[in-house]
């Protein structure tokens, strides 16, 4: 490991906000400083929900401007949510703003795909959790409803790769973000010709898959010149934010459970090879690509989106609550009064989340949560119990036990959710770092530069950079009884929804 000081920029774009973060590496620790924060607000136009790509790119440029006073920056890398993309024509021009994964165009596309490709075969190839938001179903919609747009497209770039292209001019497709598409052969780590052919999707728009941590090109001269910044190197680190966070889990354990908790909760473990079996298919568990060619064997669970969207509704009603206030109100409410399935389809779109939660409880014969405290308590308990079910599913598929849960990301700021998770899973929860995605983004740039030798060293550096907080289970027996009831109810609720 080298000891020269390095300065790097991590652009971390989430579903509701983005940041440009400055990282410094002294050879032993990484320190981070926020340079620029901004909201990420989708725009609905003509009935379609878009990402405001032009504004997001402008905000990245603002972050570059603010970095000038800190001196030379060596490199920059962008990570984002998964599955979404932009289409470029032959001249490299964006054909339209990328469409938001919550847009209704994907409704029904999952079932339509099964008429073209057997679901079991589909999973055997890709090893991916079936979710209608996945790239493959967005492309299938275009193939069946907007074929002219696909015909005009010369190239599809997933969101982090799209930002990298406009920063440095190089088209690429990084492994971790490619694995979110459900177009990748999980074992071969290349695009599946079988899936593309069966669904009638054009192979020509896909770029070759490159490893996580690949150096690209320097910042475009026109951008560097206009902003007056150094032509820093653009690095394709781990474009999928989950895999940045996964790389930064501060542990040296070979077998560990992680929860990357933010708008979504990504719950899983790290494996050397994909697990694609009848059990993993039945349980709908994904094999996503990560740094070092590792596999994240995980499930996507709707996470703090439920609290975020509830808070937005209360703000629309003129009630301003901080997240801390909501957590305090939830802690004062009675336990296990009302529970939901966080992944029920009605909770995916934006809108009046508290009313949807109340309606779910009415429909399932439970007490209806009325107050903000009761709503947030219902969400947090339901998430913790869903984590418990997912832990049991992961253990069933891998045959391994996991004595500790590592929770990283913004959700670790909720002490209530961390405590509930420890109780529900009957295991200690090691919470932190909050900025795991940023640490992973920066550290993978350092790996690309030869400053860090591998994942083990990377995780040791993250562990030295920020302390974690440990939560011990305190009420595991009551939660075990609640988990048993919850497991039975989940099956009942799923049958009611069909």
Automatic annotation (TrEMBL):
Task: State a single Pfam family of this protein.
Answer: FGGY_N
Keyword field: ATP-binding, Disulfide bond, Kinase, Nucleotide-binding, Rhamnose metabolism, Transferase
Gene3D superfamilies membership:
3.30.420.40
State the similarity comment: Belongs to the FGGY kinase family.
Which protein, by its recorded name, is this? Rhamnulokinase
Domain spans labelled Carbohydrate kinase FGGY N-terminal: 9-246
Q: Which InterPro entries match?
A: ATPase_NBD, Carb_kinase_FGGY, FGGY_C, FGGY_N, Rhamnulokinase
Residue intervals of the Carbohydrate kinase FGGY C-terminal domain: 259-449
GO CC annotation: cytosol
A GO molecular function term, named singly, is:
ATP binding
| UniProt record, GO biological process | glycerol metabolic process; rhamnose catabolic process
Query: CDD domains from the xrefs?
Result: ASKHA_NBD_FGGY_RhaB-like (cd07771)
